[in-house]
Amino acid sequence: MWVPIWTGDEAYEKFEIHGQPTNMVVDLGKRLCTCQFWMLTGISCVHACAALARVNKRPEDFCHPLVTMDSYRKTYEHYINPLPGQSMWEKSAYSQPQAPNIKRKPGKLTTKRRKDADEGTSLNKKAKQTVTLKRQPKPFTCTYCCVKGHTKRGCKQKRADELAAALATAAAAVAASKAKATHTGSTPATESSNTTNPAPPAADISPPVSASQAEEVELSQPSYGGTQDEV
């Protein structure tokens, strides 16, 4: 809150405005205030408004003429003439203005951008050394053997157990294959021996023949050694 205090002049125009953060001096006759807002903008500041309220005057009467509504109306009281399209403009007999030629400066072209003041000068050849703080991780604990210092992926005990399990599986597979090979090799041999030498039935076995019976059989049966004509 601003409190105006009259300084005691005869024109009743100078006041001392008490408030926060500091006190201000207002001169209504010269239209000045120590905050400089009234002089720069032409609009009465809060300190001037407090002094004008003390003398029962309107702040609008102490503003600059350029910021009033009368000046605004006078500025736009004339209408703006309409213009046709650019293709219908009258062509001038004079030469049209051209852009100036770009002259290349001697020397090598700069490829680096211009840095701001807070980014540091580009004359420094060596970059500033930045200190980066590394995160210190906690010690790992293996979930397989419950030993700190390594993880399950690099556990030596797990690798040894996996290798032993793989060797046991391979040995079991080899033993099973050998047992299967021996079983399949003995069964066909016995079957083939049984088929090649079958035992004759008891009814088909003839009784033993003596020597005299054998001679009679040979004499009684004719021998056909020649051709059919000779017989």
Instruction: Specify the biggest β-sheet.
Output: 4 strands, antiparallel
Output mean pLDDT: 78
Helical segment count? 5
Q: Determine the fraction of residues in helical runs and give it as a percent range.
A: 25-40%
Poorly predicted runs are 188-205, 209-231
Indicate the proportion of strand residues. 5-15%
Distance between the termini: 166 Å
Instruction: Strand order, main sheet: write it out.
Output: 1-2-3-4
The Cα radius of gyration reads 64 Å
What is the helix/strand order?
EEEEHHHHH
Class from helix and strand fractions: alpha+beta
**Shape designation:** elongated
Number of strands: 4
Description:
It comes from Arachis hypogaea (Peanut). Keywords: Metal-binding, Zinc, Zinc-finger. This is SWIM-type domain-containing protein. This protein has 231 residues and is an alpha+beta fold. 31% of the residues lie in helices and 6% in strands. Among the domains are: 3-76, no CATH class; 139-177, no CATH class. The chain has 5 helices and 4 strands, in the order ββββααααα. A hairpin with a 4-residue loop joins β3 and β4 (32-33). The longest helix is centred in the last third of the chain and has 41 residues, at 156-196. The protein is elongated. The termini are far apart.
What's the gist of this structure?
By secondary structure, the chain is α+β, with helices and mostly antiparallel strands.
Record keyword descriptors for this entry:
alpha+beta; 231 residues; 31% helix; elongated; metal-binding; Znf_SWIM; four-stranded antiparallel beta sheet; zinc ion binding; zinc
